[in-house]
Amino acid sequence: MSNLRIEVTRGGDLARQEWCFWYYEGRHALVLDSYWESERSSKRHKFRTAPGRYYCRLHRSDEPPPIAEAGVPMPEDVLEEARQKFNESLRVVRWSERGG
């Protein structure tokens, strides 16, 4: 696993926050890769990223991303869900069983 995505929908399914974590193997850590805040006017509409409400670790622009890394909310329930999903994805196998 290289990326792990956590989505939280709030406000009657009209607002969504999405965190993407990257597994940094050298440090055995899940690192914040991106964060998006999306909204929609009703359940019939698609989510759209709120203007200026995202963070991307690999932001490719001369300007900094609209949200600085320190400004990304990291609620404990999201961190716990990320840990849980990561732990569920781990497998302990013999070398010959490792697969692709």
Short description:
With 100 residues, the chain is mainly β. It is 14% helix and 38% strand.
For the structure shown, list the relevant keywords.
about 100 residues; 1 helix; 4 strands; globular
Please describe what this structure looks like.
With 100 residues, this protein is mostly beta strands. Helix content is 14%, strand content 38%. It contains one helix and four strands; from the N terminus they run ββββα. It has a four-stranded antiparallel sheet, with helices on one face. The longest helix has 14 residues, at 76-89. It is globular. 5% of the residues are buried.
Alpha plus pi helix count: 1
Describe the biggest sheet? 4 strands, antiparallel
Beta-strand proportion? 35-45%
Helicity range of the residues? Answer: 10-25%
Report the average pLDDT across residues.
87
Total DSSP E strands: 4
Q: Name the poorly predicted regions.
A: none
SSE-based structural type:
mainly beta
Written as H for each helix and E for each strand, in order along the chain, the element string is EEEEH
Radius of gyration over C-alpha positions, nearest whole angstrom: 16 Å
Strand order of the largest sheet: 1-2-3-4
What coarse outline follows from CA principal-axis ratios? globular
Distance between the termini: 11 Å
